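Researcher: Quick test of sequence recovery. Tokens follow.
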């Protein structure tokens, strides 16, 4: 297979949650800084076709790309680090692979052959490995294999990686194995045995890792590195220490210090095209670590016990806060715990309030109480997706006095459906991949807070929703003082609402957090934080 694209595969061993996505993103950033065009893809070993139908408690947030793919939250890291959009092709699951193969089998494309894991499933996996490289846009494609080496469900992926080495040839192929070096407190010793076993499992599957990246809470002494090199059959300078960092955004610089990018380039026979010293990245880190002001913002949602459910929102606060040298202290508060009796005590002391996206009625009335408190007390308010819909419902109930105003999602028989199912959703009977997904245009009113943030009248933002603002109520709502300041130019769908006589009250139907990156913080988050700082003063 002739290809000028180089392929890097990242596998994980010993335990999950070691941060393959962060290592992949950091390596991608370093290769980018040397002038290479890079993309990262994630292969997940579960049978769901995509994470769109997964509960955030199971899997963290579902991230949405411009082209409307519902993907793993690691794709958010890839975009935040590389500042390059991902797509449908960047996240593939076992479910998608089997679905493709079974569809071909049903159409008779295998001409009566017995369909098997090898070669049919592994061929399908490999064709997806190579798809992005074949576009001709990328010098390097980094592929993160989800799960742990040794998991039953990962076996076809690991086998496909083994075969890829044969397809691509030695200088176009590289395996990085991310592993854990635990520290036994009682023995005061770092232990290499789990890593040795993990590499042994890879070798049994026919894969020799080229580079070991070792997660550790303590520095690895030279003798530990030598032992790892000897028993895992890698060169000493290919044993890379990955110490726990203060922030994930430190990791690219730590990996540069450990010369991870140099090892990769030498093994892939690549020479740097340029070598930027990551100045903008360092400037961002400097501001992140040396804030000149701070503010406390409440994030109100129903999945707060797993912060990964709101990963992109939390990272958006990091990017936007750093850009104005402000430390944002986020308080995650469960909307289920807020009610008519306690909302003042729960929300007191917050400089700004964000009501998060979500589905279903659990914790919904707590969100209503939250919006009412922010509106009546002049506290800067930001509502995202369901958060915007809650703001509209609260306004209709308490300002317009529309009896029983609600969303048909929460109450199908509400007398005042101010939020209702979108027209094109009415005949949808499947859950997965059927919402309004991906990037859509929005036109802003010049007098609005949204225009003040973006500085332009035409924007594009990503969506993930089934229900929408009901335009039958638009005139009534606007006459009462809540204005639709952003609309989709084609459908007239209300995308942004604001309240006129309030310091900063903005609700958006889209998900602005999906497009925030280290080098391009999301403008609405920046303005919201500034409003919270002003409120504090």
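Model:
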């Amino acid at each position: 297979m002739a290809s000028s694209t180089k392929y890097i595969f990242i596998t994980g061993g010993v335990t999950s949650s070691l941060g393959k996505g962060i290592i992949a993103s950091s390596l991608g950033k370093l290769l980018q800084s040397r002038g290479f065009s890079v993309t990262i893809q994630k292969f997940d070993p579960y049978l769901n076709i995509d994470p769109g139908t997964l509960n955030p408690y199971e899997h963290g947030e579902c991230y949405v790309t411009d082209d409307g793919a519902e993907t793993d939250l690691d794709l958010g890291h890839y975009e935040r680090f590389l500042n390059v959009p991902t797509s449908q092709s960047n996240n593939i699951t076992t479910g998608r692979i089997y679905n493709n193969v079974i569809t071909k089998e049903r159409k008779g494309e295998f001409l009566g052959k017995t369909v098997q894991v090898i070669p049919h499933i592994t061929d399908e996996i490999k064709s997806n490995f190579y798809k992005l490289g074949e576009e001709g846009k990328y010098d390097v494609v980094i592929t993160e294999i989800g799960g742990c080496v040794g998991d039953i469900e990962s076996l076809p992926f690991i086998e496909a990686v083994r075969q890829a080495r044969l397809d691509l040839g030695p200088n176009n192929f590289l395996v990085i194995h991310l592993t854990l070096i635990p520290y036994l407190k009682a023995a005061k010793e770092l232990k290499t045995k789990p890593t040795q076993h993990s590499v042994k499992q890879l070798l049994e599957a026919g894969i020799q890792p080229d580079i070991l990246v070792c997660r550790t809470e303590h520095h690895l002494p030279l003798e530990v590195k030598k032992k790892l090199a000897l028993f895992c059959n890698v060169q000493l300078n290919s044993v890379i220490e990955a110490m726990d960092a203060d922030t994930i955004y430190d990791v690219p610089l730590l990996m540069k210090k450990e010369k991870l990018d140099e090892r990769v380039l030498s093994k892939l026979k690549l020479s740097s095209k340029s070598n930027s010293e990551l100045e903008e990245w360092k400037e961002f880190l400097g501001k992140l670590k040396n804030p000149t002001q701070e503010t406390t913002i409440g994030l109100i949602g129903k999945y707060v016990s797993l912060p990964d459910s709101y990963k992109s929102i939390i990272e958006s606060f990091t990017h936007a806060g750093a850009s104005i040298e402000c430390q944002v202290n986020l308080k995650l508060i469960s909307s289920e715990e807020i009610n008519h009796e306690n909302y003042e005590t729960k929300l007191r002391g917050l400089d700004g309030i964000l009501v998060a996206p979500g589905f279903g009625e659990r914790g919904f009335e707590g969100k209503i109480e939250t919006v009412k408190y922010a509106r009546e007390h002049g506290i800067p308010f930001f509502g995202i997706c369901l958060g915007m819909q809650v703001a509209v419902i609260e306004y209709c109930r308490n300002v317009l006095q529309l009896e029983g105003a609600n969303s048909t999602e929460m109450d199908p028989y509400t007398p005042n459906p101010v939020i209702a199912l979108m027209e094109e959703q009415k005949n949808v009977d499947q859950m997965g991949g059927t919402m309004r997904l991906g990037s859509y245009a929005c036109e802003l009113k010049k007098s609005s807070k949204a225009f003040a943030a973006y500085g332009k009248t035409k924007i594009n933002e990503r969506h993930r929703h089934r229900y929408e603002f009901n335009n039958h109520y638009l005139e009534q709502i606007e006459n009462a003082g809540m204005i639709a300041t952003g609309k989709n130019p084609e459908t007239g769908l209300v995308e942004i609402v604001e309240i006129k006589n309030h310091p900063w009250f903005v609700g958006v139907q889209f998900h602005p957090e999906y497009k925030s990156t280290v080098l391009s913080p999301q403008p609405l988050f920046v303005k919201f934080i500034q409003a919270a700082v002003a409120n504090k003063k």
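The first helix runs from residue 20 to 33.
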